[in-house]
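This follows on from our talk about sequence and fold. I would like you to pick a protein and set down its sequence and fold. Go ahead and set the record down below:
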Amino acid sequence: MSIANRLASAAVALFGRSDSPVSTSNQSPAVGGGGGWVNWATGQGIMGRDPATSATFGFQMQLPDMLRDNLYYFEPLTGIVVDRPAKDLVRRGVEFKGCGGYDLGALESKLDDLQWLKNISRAYRWARKDGGSAMVLIVDDGREAWRPIDYKNLRRVHALQVLERRQISVAKWNYDPTTEGYNEPLLYYVHAAGARNSLALVHRDRVIRFVHGDLPYRASAMFQGWGVSVIDRIWGPLRAKGAALAAISTILTSYAVDVVKITGYAEAVKLGNRDVLQMRADQMRATLGNLGKIFIDSNGEDFTPLVRSAAGLADIIELLIDEAQAGTNIPKSILRGISPGGLGDGENAGEIRGYYDWISGEQDEHLIPPGTRIVDLTARSLIGPLQGRAPAHWRIVPKPLWQPTDLELAQIGLTNAQRRSTDWLSGNMSREEFRSDPTFVSLYDLEDDADGEEMDELELTAAKPFPPGHTPMTTREAAAEFGVGPGTIRSMIHSGKIGAYKMGRGYVVSLQEVMAAAKRIQALPADPTIPAESPEDPALAAA
């Protein structure tokens, strides 16, 4: 007899019936909440005897758009869950790196006209609410919208149009595995506002997709290539929280009940003395209160206040909020409007720091790629702020959300000063290295003096001629041009990477020399539009 049959016979003997949960086939018995453990005596893990084995996760459908909208509009927790990360995504702005020699003022002015950060935040917000959104790039390139962008004839970027998920649909998918964007939308239908049958065909090259919650292939196909709404993910605990709050509200309406026992009440009702009873009830209600008195008949009446218990209700609400919060990555201190101001300010500083780290990851996915796309198109526009001269190796860097307090900055400065002073006194650092250290310079502003700052280009040229075509500037100007600290430029001077002329206590450098040095060390991009020094230049060789 096989082991399975022996188990079946034992089950029959134990339970007294032949329809035991043990299968006589080669398959193992069904188990549930107990994992792989089965207790035949107690029924743990046995289908039909252990209630835990009946628990499963059902198929979750997407919420209707109207329900999701109402939750976003009128449910406070839902609104914060959707809006707060979208605001923090762009709250501190961004910095442009690797754009030395370019007019960033004109570029930033054009980007501000496009409201690029505001539109990115809005698209990210709708993606969180509905699982996805899109941004259509309205550009002037002489082509129809259903064709890819003609980058050679790209004249200007007119506007950025943010669309909700329901405003755009896929017209054609790319099923060619040999092409870029395989298994992604190739063409979109854009539904015109206020027109039921008006559709515009737009190529994927003119659309930036925002998808919240990437899904595997089958789930993505079910959701038409979009992601999952954050509201859908927290719907279960959110619904339970709402039901619990409604129940508490109902309990509070009858939280305290006054019970009056009257001898012969039932008989008085039968005799029709309702007016007398109502008058008596009104007398009691008029005198009953914190400062009032109530008079009752000691022989025929009994007054008892009945107060219901609400113990444990607050714990239930907190548990449901924790469940909802777990699916949002937003700490409860932020959901409730409590946030510390610095690194060590407040008992919730640790979870705030974790939240900011999560936002940094969201910026890498939902801010930097679309932002880079928008800035690149704006810079490459022939009639744009840079006249088509886009930097070769530029990038955008979001400014960190986590900011130290004034006390923490002072402590950091003191620690750095003590460390550098120790290096200097021990002989490990020269006085010039000490004064040119980027950290020390940023704290004490010991770089260029007023003489070097106040000299204009003519005075500098007259004082010390430069080779033809070279642009003189102070170390501060060079540092600001390339987005580095003045100490970095000073260190390049002391190490011999670039030449400089001494002016008072400061230095004057050549823009072309700094760019050439940056190109050699691959730290900063070189601008091909500015002529670099020539080895055959006798004046430069003499310098």
In short: Residues 12-34, 445-464, 523-543 have pLDDT under 50 and may be disordered. The radius of gyration is 37 Å. Residues 256 and 307 are 4 Å apart (CA to CA).
